[in-house]
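Quick start: what a row looks like.
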Amino acid sequence: MRLAEAVETIRHEAAPLVEARFKQFQDLGKNGSEEQLYSELCFCILTANWSAKGGIEAQRLIGTEGFVNMDEEKLTQILVKLHHRYPKARASYIVKNRWIVGRLRSLLSLPPLQAREWLVKNVWGIGYKEASHFLRNTGIEELAILDRHVLSLMVRYGLIDSLPKALTKQRYLNLEGLLKQEADHFGESVGKFDLYLWYFVKKTVEK
């Protein structure tokens, strides 16, 4: 059985949750303030090598204004309290990246691949996975989020032989292409397909 066919088994129960969650992403991308967009960018930076649940709790405790204004020491204290794996580094990234507030709305108007490249080249703590995550969470559907859960599914269903030790740009793009084929077979964009994959693994679409 291919991956798309396996995920088909949960389509009916997952579809209402996926559609509601994706509408929230689209609303953020269209109507969110620069501060709200920055909060979401910070969420994607924080969840890398951590957890979506932890990122959600960090957003709650830090708050939208906190990501823009809170000092690095206080940010670090909150992330330590939440048992983040890299509290000092991630707090530092949040502070260093604040120059981007005021530029995110225009970034979202760029073609998705161009927006992703810009994020990877200019923002601390952002690689292709994190950039794709942020852009998807602002309603952009064309990019794959190759986190460990998705990569593990790709191994399990024979799309790749083993988990990659590192993801260069070319390797990321190649794997993204394979996942897009599964999304096409499933009949959804790869960004939305990711939420079905998340539900398939976690029984939730909070990501």
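That is the whole record. DSSP finds twelve helices and no strands in the chain. The two ends are 26 Å apart (CA to CA).
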